[in-house]
């Protein structure tokens, strides 16, 4: 077995997280409890790879529960299958998020061009986002104003 020689500060700094995050991951069971020397946590170099995996998974929106599943798959040799399943499950959420972000961007672009004197008279706040039963879409409302 490799000797555990890295401190929590060294591991955290290498990955770019706070030491408190490492302790949190340990409490949540995402990181295994490290060895201790004179009461201090001591990590093996493989802790860095595990933290990088956790961080990468969080950056794409996986929850700690999903990350735990991913890491368990890695421990059993099934990581590729677990990763595919998680990705397939999360892609619809990402598609919805992209759609919402595109709508937000469009609204903000229109707002940036707005020359209304007050919010009370601004069509950005009076029109529906999408066309509905006799109501024009927001872009159509603003197009009429120009």
Report on the structure:
The protein is mainly α. It has a domain at 8-90: Multidrug-efflux Transporter Regulator, Chain: A, Domain 2. The protein is built from six helices and two strands. Strands 1-2 form a two-stranded antiparallel sheet. A hairpin with a 2-residue loop joins strand 1 and strand 2 (40-42). Helix 4 (64-76) runs antiparallel to helix 5 (79-113). The chain is elongated. The termini are far apart.
Structural class: mainly alpha
- Describe the sheet with the most strands: 2 strands, antiparallel
Q: How many strand elements?
A: 2
CATH class of one domain: Mainly Alpha
**Spatial ordering of strands, largest sheet:** 1-2
The residue ranges in which pLDDT falls below 50 over 5 or more consecutive positions are: 130-135
CATH arch. level architecture of one domain: Orthogonal Bundle
Q: Please give the radius of gyration in angstroms.
A: 24 Å
End-to-end Cα distance, whole Å, is 73 Å
Number of helices: 6
Order of helices and strands: HHEEHHHH
CATH topology name of one domain, in short, is: Multidrug-efflux Transporter Regulator, Chain: A, Domain 2
The gist of it:
The chain is mostly helical and 146 residues long. The protein contains 6 helices and 2 strands.
SSE inventory with pairings:
Blueprint: H1 8-15, H2 19-28, E1 35-37, E2 40-42, H3 46-59, H4 64-76, H5 79-113, H6 138-145
Antiparallel strand pairs: 1-2
Helix pairs in contact: 1-3, 4-5
Q: Key features?
A:
two-stranded antiparallel ribbon; mainly alpha; 146 residues; 6 helices; Multidrug-efflux Transporter Regulator, Chain: A, Domain 2
